[in-house]
Amino acid sequence: MRDYFFKIVLFLLLVLPQAWGKNTPYSYSYIPKFVYKNQVFPVTILVKHYNPNSNLDFEFDIMGLFQPLNLTPVKMINKDNAFFTFYFQAKTNDNKIEIPSLSIWDFNSSYILDPKIIEVKELPNPKSNYSGVMASNFRINGIKISPYDSNNKLVILNIEAVEANLEDMHIKGVKEDGVENIKRDGANVRGSYFFVVDKEQDSIEFSYYNTLRKKFIDKKLSLVESKNRVQANLNPKDLSFDKFKKYSIIAITLFFLLFYIYSRDKLYLFVVIVGVAALIYFYKPKEKICINEGAALYILPTKNSNISFQIEEKIEREVLKEYNHYYKIEYKDNITGWIKDEDLCQN
């Protein structure tokens, strides 16, 4: 009798939940069998007989090591079914990851989808110029080039990609690089990748791994400045154009001064006065700022910019440029960067 009772309990615990589970409207419609290390990948939940007026809430177990990159899932409706997609990144050195259990609430009840294990592999045979980026699509929308110092130039790539680990991008052979201003919207990600190379370098080549085509895609970029190439004025210390303007104003002022001496025409005198005023503006001493010891010298005037140097002692420097609460200075010979206004001396 006891054995019979035990079999009934076992049946209730193991068989009936599976039968009931088949009738639940929630299930995983897509989970990859394996992913590569650092890959961004989708996990999709199917909702059968979806009611557009329902207010579904999704919450992965907060105790789980891996959490989605997007707190709000991407929703797609197909007839009376709906698909909700979350994106994860396999940022781990382990050979597997666990998608935490998922709680789903609707008007009447709650459901739990069990954790799922996904194998993690190393990307096989990466190319020598592999940038570390995996994406189902990768596009460079713009390139900005500007002088960085007397020997190097700064290049900023405006990138748009899909299912991409853009944070891990690194082009081999560059002197300094980093990723700025990353913004994710579901599968789409945008950001700026900057790097410093020799000013004479006229091109650069790298590759990314296309997760849809399952192959490496090469990208070759021209680093030659042209009329169609946008130039950034965030980091340059190129004073050649300023010198050209100054010399041009001097020449024009002297030219009209000679005309005024010869003709005594007041119009020429007016032009001379304007020219002298412009020269006074150009040659007036630049504003100096006091910078606290330990202040960070940033590569770019942006919130998440990388730090290139730490100011070793309290110093005063001329302001080369101002931009959005940042001041561009020359710290040492041929070393320029940006200082936050909060790092200036108070007195």
Please tell me about this protein's structure:
The protein has 347 residues and is an alpha+beta fold. It has four domains: 120 residues, Immunoglobulin-like; 102 residues; 44 residues; 56 residues, SH3 type barrels (Roll). The protein is 18% helix and 43% strand. It has a five-stranded mixed β-sheet, with no helix packed on it. It has a four-stranded antiparallel β-sheet with strand order 1-3-6-5, with no helix packed on it. It has a three-stranded mixed β-sheet with strand order 2-10-7, with no helix packed on it. Strand 8 and strand 9 form a beta hairpin. Helix 2 runs antiparallel to helix 3. The protein is elongated, with a radius of gyration of 31 Å. 21% of the residues are buried.
Descriptive tags:
single chain; 347 residues; alpha+beta; Immunoglobulin-like; 4 domains; five-stranded mixed beta sheet; four-stranded antiparallel beta sheet; 3 helices; 25 strands; 43% strand
**DSSP summary, beta strand count:** 25
Architecture (CATH level 2) name of the largest domain: Sandwich
The secondary-structure element order is HEEEEEEEEEEEEEEEEEEHHEEEEEEE
What's the domain count? 4
- What is the CATH level 1 assignment of the largest domain? Mainly Beta
- Label the overall shape: elongated
Give the strand order of the largest sheet, numbering strands 1, 2, ... along the chain: 14-15-13-12-18
Give a quick account of the main beta sheet: strands, pairing sense, barrel closure.
5 strands, mixed
Helix proportion: 10-25%
Residue stretches low in confidence (pLDDT < 50, at least 5 long) are: 4-21, 227-240
Q: Which structural class is indicated by helix and strand composition?
A: alpha+beta
- What is the quaternary state of this protein? single chain
CATH topology of the largest domain: Immunoglobulin-like
Number of helices: 3
% residues in beta strands: 35-45%
Could you name the CATH homologous superfamily of the largest domain?
Immunoglobulins
The N- and C-terminal alpha carbons lie at a distance of: 90 Å
Q: Overall mean pLDDT score?
A: 82
Question: What is the radius of gyration?
Answer: 31 Å
